[in-house]
Amino acid sequence: MSFSHTHRTIDTIWRMESAKIIAGLTRMVRDVGLAEDLAQDALVIALNRWPETGIPDHAGAWLMTTAKRRAIDLIRRTKLRDQKYVEVAHSMDLYTEVDIDDALDEEISDDLLRLIFMTCHPVLSQDARVALTLRLLCGLTTDEIARSFLVAESTIAQRIVRAKKTLSANKVPFEVPVQEELKDRLSTVLEVLYLMFNEGYSATSGVDWIRPLLCQEALRLGRVLAEINPYEPEVHGLVALMEIQSSRFRTRVNSKGEPILLMDQNRAKWDQLLIRRGLTALERSRKLGRPPGPYSLQAAISACHAQASTAAETDWIRISALYEALSRVMPSPIVELNRAVAISMAFGPTFGLQIVDELNTEPSMREYHLLPSVRGDLLLKLGRYGEARTEFERAASLTENERERILLLNRAEACNLGTS
């Protein structure tokens, strides 16, 4: 295995395992910033050692064990001269390495939920909560998070640093809150799970188009929240959205890992159990009798696709109406871009292109690769092949995902042949 390939593999492993490691370490040291530093130390050791020794069979366990040992060493070194860690040690009764191993070997999934609620504490601003949680739970870089927010990378970096310091200074507990306190944090937690799922569904960067394990974890945590909050319609709405979207995983890439667009997917292979679960969750949300929120509306859009046995049978007029409703409860340029796609499918590409061209003046969309990608698709359908090629090439230059870049360059090349 080449040096560069080893590093890419390590990066993939880190993205899969980092959240569990950070959550377990946070339970030990009660400081999320320190926990991330300790986890990063383990990653650095792996980067230095694995290219020579080879990647171990149980790489995640290796990283966890290495990070635990760093934490143990830290507690031993500092507990006599730093009262903060003395208090940590006493509160957890962590006096031996065996005790610490036992503490980390408990159910990790509970730690992940605690970590989400910890980083979504109201002592932080809404933007800081989401940025920090995406950093820790999804393993996203500041650049990737900045792209999700459509803001500068330096802004995200500052938010994350300040957020970790604020949590430490306020000694925010590592726990799932109850009753009213839980309700106060719920909207941010739902937003984090939504963004976490989206990152797994369509990876911002890297060599893989999708990250199924990240989606599975977001869905699992969403189901747990639905049990804790059975009377919150948006919790069920988000679970419905994730269930239905997850049903498509087997058809989103081919055997080579190359992306397959929605209209080209084999719907007979969509997971019908996940679709039924999603429709049931959506019905639960509706029965609670409140106006649909952004997650329930997006779930309803996904349901339209799931209930169409072929792409040609998709009810694009209803989807357009749902996007119109979504734009009122969650106005954003990205929602408008999706609405433009739906409008183009329902009423023709000329109408969709009018909306997309208006978005070209939106500053936050200048570096968003899906804007030229959608514009290229609409121009292609109108037979304006030269313009379409330019848009696909621009989209390819903006995306950080290698699979998506290849897809867009292939679409640009197809414009020379006058095909889609």
From TrEMBL:
Signal peptide: none annotated. Residues 23-79 form the RNA polymerase sigma-70 region domain. Residues 185-285 form the DUF6596 domain. Pfam families: DUF6596 (PF20239), Sigma70_r2 (PF04542), Sigma70_r4_2 (PF08281). Coiled coil: none annotated. This is RNA polymerase subunit sigma-24. The lineage of its organism: Bacteria, Bacillati, Bacillota, Bacilli, Bacillales. InterPro entries: DUF6596, RNA_pol_sigma-70_dom, RNA_pol_sigma70_r2, RNA_pol_sigma70_r4_t2, RNA_pol_sigma_r2, RNA_pol_sigma_r3/r4-like, WH-like_DNA-bd_sf. Residues 115-167 form the RNA polymerase sigma factor 70 region 4 type domain. It comes from Paenibacillus odorifer.
